[in-house]
Amino acid sequence: MQVAGHGLRVDDETRWRRDLARGASLLAAVLAGAALVFWVAANWSRMTPDARLAGVQGALALCVVMAAVLAWRGHRATESMVALAALAALATGALLALVGQIYQTGADAWELFLAWAVLILPWLAALRSVFLALLWAALLNLSLWLFLDGPTPSAWWRWGASIPSSAWLLGLNGVLLALAESLRPVWRDARHLIRRALAAATLAWAVAVAAQGAVQDGAGAVGLLALGLVPILAVYGAHVRWRPDPAVAALALLAGIGVAGFVLAPWVDSPEGLLGLALLVLALGLWAARHALRLRAALAPTVEAGAASVARDGRADAGSASGADRFAEDDAPWYVTALRVGILVPVVLMLGVWAAIGFELDSAADALGAGLLSMLPGLWIARRAAGATWREAGGVLTVLGLLLCAVGAWLTAGEGARGAALAILLAAGAAAYAGTRQFPVRLAAAGLTLALGCWLTMPLDFLFHLEDIQEAGWPAGLAWRLVALLALGAIVWIGSMAGARRACWRPLAWAALATAAGLAALLSLAQAQPGLWWTSGGGALLACAVLPGLLLGAWMASHRPALPAGPRLVAPAACCVAALGWMGAPVFAVALVGLVLGRWSGARLAQALSVMLGLAGLALYYFDSSDALVAKAARLGLTAVWLAALAIWLWAPWRLPGRPSGATAHRARGLPVWLLAGGALALGAVQFRVHHYEAILSQGRPVILALAPVDPRSLMQGDYMALDYAVRRQAEDWLREQEPVRAALRASGRGWLLLRRDGEGVWRLAAVAADPPAAPAEDTVALALRWRNEGLDWGGRSWFFPEGEGDRYAKARYGALRVAADGTALLDGLLDEALAPL
């Protein structure tokens, strides 16, 4: 017997315990890794640098040893072993960040991420886990991006990338995708997550390159377009013929349509041209959806034989849904639905702009009238038309009409008629949802109605009071709306599993959860006042945080034969207690709700999206300034320990197998060696770097340089001041008059600054050299530098300080460096105007 078709076996207590323990252990590993990063970034002043280093090294060693012990005991502990190895990989990054923080070697430098990727390779090779593979690929991407986009410490947050960076990142992800495909037999990746993630990254960078080419002129534009189109065609062809995967093929089709839209967009200079582009993109989208279904039907014998694939709403993707017209029904596969949504959004937006300009819609009455004129025919066509193409066109008209009605409601609310605006919006949204059977249309109708409805019920100007939220008085109301949306999404989701007739409500559940995620992100960005959530919004955030535990309890209670009363009560109660750990991270709580619902219904897409949303929620929690990083690290760490104890308790009645024999014994002996070797490599490499930095600080010559600081927050290393030296500007002015030296620096990639001390003890520029200088004079120092992105880089670009001590270091006017005999420099301290240490 199965739960909802794809759930756990309700008559198997062992499987229930195993899956609950696996989930608890993986969640504990994620929270423990986040706690370690938060703790390192806090730069806690009450603990010495040596003690902090010892703490992180000890945590890394403990994780490696425990993973090795589990590997030696047998294969049944695979999930826990992988979780420990993943935590060790995260601890490796935290250790590298801590070394960079202590020795002031730079904020978010590309070397940190590259070294991190290299050091986790032994564990990746030994375990071949999906998490480590995706982490390794992400680290390589970050390292290359930071290297190509220059030495700016805060370059990680820039959304865009230069043309060379986009091209190189495209090449990197293409190579990684080819490598993953060639090593496919050795990966434990039954869901093809590695392939699809790397294919999506490759296609995204290909579209970025082609889009940059679309706005260029001349031969360069043709080259960039070709550089973007060729990888798209290659990914499509490879995953149709060589490694059949209809999901990747559908993503490639969507990317190709995106490139076509970017190529034609610069030629649009009138409303008629915009209308033509929208219709062309719609036609291409219809063709792509039909083509994707044909590919799925053709590839079904080789791709989906022996198992039912999972549709985008969690139900089995029936093999009969292979006709070219099935994309207009509710049971289309998730990747076809994603393709249709990806086409629907830009088409409706272009049509909305065309309607607003072409018909001069400048009032609420105009917008409402145009909306009704579009929605009513659209609903009739979507319900009555015989062909899939006409039904899809009717759905587009319906969403366009709803969008125009929403604009009319917004304008009506701006005139003070909030109640009328809300009534108009609800009526239009309900008509669009009930009048069609298409999943994307229903999703758009529910999402637009819920999102704008939340806005209409809030104070008119709440979005403009983020800097003074306590006086604005809106976060508490927003938090309770978040709880209401989560409860609505959960109730509708559970109800949609009752049968095929109720499955029509699943788009509403998706829309409610998506809107809740947006509200949670807004709440995270608004948390700027310490203690706010323990007063006005604390109850709502607590209710949001405990909802995953309550859903878990409801799931288990609905299948009582599976577990005795003890585990059935203890596991949900423990999750509700653990909610105190993520109460301040509402996005993470929303992700856990989606994860439980996705697991309950067997919706793999919901689970995957929830995991990504949870990681994003932890990132937002990191940058939330309402509480200290040390406090957040402590809460997350205690929560991780609590969940680990729950996992151990769930596993307690089931002993691990004895020592294996034969081939399994050989693997059990080899795997611990690989794990321990990886740990020794990480700890040894970090210790070597520490020894090198200590030698520079103890033996290097002291150099004082004038600087100009600013203070952002690093991606992993906490609060810091980004430093800009006056001598760098002097060197740039000097090089403008010495073009041969600049050319030599550009060719070799490295050079030296010759510095001479003035009468006040500050070192000034004497010259810039491309060749190693001879033995400098007594009052001269040769500072080694690298030439990157037409700029000079010699390190010492940041000063990390404990959280909350920015005012103390805002008085810094000089940087004290230590320069080794080979020219390598480390920042040793900051000085005030009187050259006194801060």
Automatic annotation (TrEMBL):
Q: Which keywords, in A-to-Z order, does the entry hold?
A: Membrane, Transmembrane, Transmembrane helix
Q: Which residues form a coiled coil?
A: none
Boundaries of each DUF2157 domain copy? 16-131
Transmembrane region positions?
A: 20-42, 54-72, 84-103, 109-125, 130-148, 168-186, 198-215, 221-240, 247-267, 273-289, 334-357, 363-382, 394-413, 419-436, 443-466, 478-496, 508-526, 532-557, 569-597, 603-623, 635-652, 672-690
What's the superkingdom here? Bacteria
Does the keyword Membrane belong to this entry? yes
What is the name of this protein? GDYXXLXY domain-containing protein
Species: Castellaniella denitrificans
